[in-house]
Design brief:
The chain is an alpha/beta fold and 248 residues long. Helices cover 36% and strands 25% of the residues. Strands 6-7-8-3-9-10 form a six-stranded mixed β-sheet, sandwiched between helices. The longest helix has 16 residues, at 179-194. Bound molecules: adenosine-5'-triphosphate. Keywords: Amino-acid transport, ATP-binding, Nucleotide-binding, Transport.
Length: 248
């Protein structure tokens, strides 16, 4: 379903030297560079207030950077708003729960495809997400409000995939979930990646997220402080102590 070509640089999404902030307040991002290869999970970790959610807002067009460039598949898309970023292939799953509880799982998922005119494409994508997220298929006609938090998160993932994005931005997908549900949600994130959608992920639960990710970026003071293969970050005791809640 999703393109896995990537640009000539090999990156699907590039945030290059981004400076961004809110109103007249001090900058939150101060020269941040993050690159997401096609078919990869990239995870941003860092202390509270480091600007992780702000990175996703810049990437999805919710917040226009003061300077720097955003590239999707090599094309400069800096300054485009959320709708045009979605059209460019960037979908944003916001923090917290956003399912419509009084609507069925099917209605929630199909809302994600409301901009699509081609009914056959909608049916094809609905079949794809039902296959990818078994709980979505099993609970298709249930009211979404009756599902557990982890199941609702999967409905949100399924809804975001209906537009056929190239990269999905996930903000704290494990928020409010118990460890078992968190495990299932991360398994599903890996399945999304394996099915061809790149993922840029922000997580408080840094250790669990890095276990699922290919690349990790540690944010501090509005920049990427360290980045590299997720398993190397996990093995770095100094980083573990500072950012991952691991005591030496
Ligand atoms: N809408 C907003 N208006 C003004 N300031 C904001 C807004 N959203 C975030 N900020 C500020 O930007 C800074 C970075 O916030 P952000 O939510 O990006 O950090 P974070 O790393 O995701 O934090 P957390 O882990 O606590 O979610 C914080 O100082 C925050 O107060």
């Amino acid at each position: 379903m999703a393109s896995d070509s990537g640009s000539s640089s090999g990156f699907l999404l590039e945030l290059d030297d981004i400076r961004a902030g809110y109103g007249r307040a001090a900058l939150v991002l101060r020269g941040l560079t993050v690159r997401v290869p096609a078919g990869a999970i990239v995870c941003l970790v860092g202390p509270n207030g480091a600007g992780k959610s702000t990175v996703l807002k810049v990437a999805s067009g919710l917040l226009t950077p003061r300077s720097g460039r955003i590239l999707v598949d090599g094309e400069d898309v800096t300054g485009r708003g959320p709708q045009r970023m979605l059209a460019a292939g960037v979908a944003h799953v916001l923090q917290g729960h956003s399912v419509f509880r009084e609507m069925t799982v099917a209605e929630n998922v199909l809302l994600g495809g409301y901009t699509l005119r081609d009914k056959a494409l909608v049916a094809e994508r609905a079949a794809f997400v039902r296959d990818l997220f078994p709980v979505v298929a099993q609970r298709w006609t249930s009211l979404a409000g009756l599902l557990s938090g982890g199941q609702q998160k999967q409905v949100e993932f399924a809804r975001s995939l209906m537009v056929g994005p190239r990269v999905v931005l996930l903000d704290e997908p494990s928020m409010g979930l118990d460890p078992r549900a968190t495990g299932v949600v991360f398994e599903q994130i890996v399945r999304m990646r394996d099915a061809g959608t790149a993922v840029l992920l922000v997580e408080q639960n840094a250790r669990r997220a890095l276990e699922a990710a290919d690349t990790g970026c540690v944010l501090d003071l509005g920049r990427v402080h360290v980045s590299g293969p997720a398993e190397e970050l996990l093995a770095d005791s100094r980083l573990g102590e500072l950012y991952l809640g691991v005591r030496p």
